[in-house]
Amino acid sequence: MARAYSEGSSRADGGETGWEDLSVVNKVLVAEINKLKPGQHSDVIEAPEGFYLLLLEDRHPAHFKPLNEVRTQIERQLASAETERLSKQWIERLKKKNLRPHLLSTCLVSSL
């Protein structure tokens, strides 16, 4: 039905949105979603931006990864951000001294 009648961004996928956290779902829909059991569909829901027909395929609790699973990724992201911050700071100091930071930054990047 969504492929034929929807004007939403998920039209091509038949209205399928995949797993979504309720915190990012339209607030008008959350109350209706909470009433549904897996396999049930809603009545037509009227919202300011349009009409919805929901099918709840399944539920699963929110999942948060333990720190030990994401520690390395976080450390890499922080190190990368710090390297970028320090590089920008260094280039700004070079600019103040009227040096050519574009040549020096190339050397810095290639030496990392």
What is the mean pLDDT?
80
List unreliable stretches of 5+ residues: none
Distance between the termini: 54 Å
In spatial order, strands of the major sheet run 1-2
Number of domains: 2
Explain what the structure shows:
The protein has helices at 2-5, 27-35, 67-96, 101-111; strands at residues 45-47, 50-52. With 112 residues, the chain is mostly helical. The chain has 2 domains: 2-52, no CATH class; 67-111. It has a two-stranded antiparallel ribbon with strand order 1-2. The N and C termini lie far apart (54 Å). The mean pLDDT is 80.
Helix-strand layout with pairing:
Layout: H1 2-5, H2 27-35, E1 45-47, E2 50-52, H3 67-96, H4 101-111
Antiparallel strand pairs: 1-2
Helix pairs in contact: 3-4
Defining traits:
112 residues; 2 domains; 5% strand; two-stranded antiparallel sheet; 4 helices; mainly alpha; single chain
Task: Briefly characterize the structure.
This protein is mostly helical and 112 residues long. The protein is built from four helices and two strands.
